[in-house]
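Hey all, sorry for the wall of text incoming. These are the two entities for the joint prediction.
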Amino acid sequence: MTTITIEEAARFIGKEIILRGWVYNKRSSGKIIFLQIRDGTGVVQGVITQSDTPSLFVTANNLSREASVVVKGTLQADNRAPGGCELKIEQIQVIQQPSEPFPIELKRQSPGFLMDHRHLWIRTGRQVPILRIRDSVFRAVRDFFHEQGFIATEAPILTGASVEGTTTLFEVDYYGTRAYLAQSGQLYLEATAMALGKVYWIGPVFRAEKSKTRKHLTEFWMAEAETAFYDHGDNMRLQEELVAYIVETVIEERKQELDYLKRDTAFLREQVSLPFPRITYDQAITILRDSGHKISFGDDFGAPQEATLGDQFRKPVFVEYFPASMKPFYMKHAPEKPSRVLAADLIAPEGYGELIGGSQRVDTLNELERQLDEKKLPREAYEWYLDLRRYGSVPHSGFGIGIARTIAWICGIPHIREAIPFARQVNRLYP
RNA sequence: UCCUCGGUAGCUCAAUUGGCAGAGCGCUCGGCUGUUAACCGAAUGGUUGUAGGUUCGAGUCCUACCCGGGGAGCCA
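and here's what came out:
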């Protein structure tokens, strides 16, 4: 007898099999009981009638939601069952019967309550499909970079200096001196790119911003890439290919999950047809003003502005050539227009915000020193980074993509907290 | 940090002008042989976020604080 997972069930119709999982729900009608069994790969309906197996009927009747069970039975096609297939249960081994009612109900509950019970919430409803899509996104990122000849590497989480200033860093005690949780792996990736050529990493980064929005986490996972000899244009091409690859992979691997989430895959696919539109910061300002936004030159885009840009193009859109004053020190200024940087943000459609921030990096010592001074950053802390410009510096570019935002967009879910197993937010550190 | 809405049973919410604190769901019990968040019946369930104040009387009005939702700013 074969032990199978629920996602394999269709291939075992007519066969006797074993399933290991949890009771997702129980419905009964007199002398017949329907057990919805879940196992992480899906949910299948089991059926038990009193007349066939009286003692089994008693066992099943006593089970409550989330009881862990091993069930043996025969799979049969049945249009009356959700999914068109059900398990005629012949034997149940109860691993554990919950001592208390399962707190997560199948009806609507408030976000605060659900987040307090996140460790249990993830078992239910759309949480499982979302987390399975998350798995595909991570794998797609790794496959893409591997296929493109990139080397996976790592950046430290504990750092002594910040990338973009010190206001948004989590501080930790490091043997009596101050250390910070990394808000980006970028600077270290630049060093690694000078060693290996094309590198990427996927890792957690930390921002101590007090943002309380549907797009922010204080700890989130970012995939960052850094490529030697890539210019700004190469960089954007790499980014759009990555995004398209991720979406195509999810559509291919997680059709069922997207269907569960009622996400229109044709629409998604349309959104990632290449190339993505590119507009300059100046053009974006014009578009936004024409749409009635009050925005001054030099302002960054807020959520409403990003939503407008998303609506305008109905695709991810690159906004490039930002004023240098509003961007960090490591971005290379455009040779033809030094007040602008060779940087681009990729704005997601449907109001999901900025997916990617990327730029060509400063590659000469003089320019880098000047920009550190301009941003009033201490050179000493960046000596090792300056070294990269002293020893065989080359043009290079890189970017970082927020994984959870990408997942939220692909899934079409309203809030980023569901796009990560355990969200860390400004007022949430538990569970 | 700011704006805004909210906090009443385990959950989701009612409660008229300040006048007996209620319903649905869940759990428990009973009924029902094809349920689809099953349904029907019964029972259970309360320090109304905390502290103070006004009042004959406060879930309701006032003050402070705590907690949560949504948003802004900042960001990916």
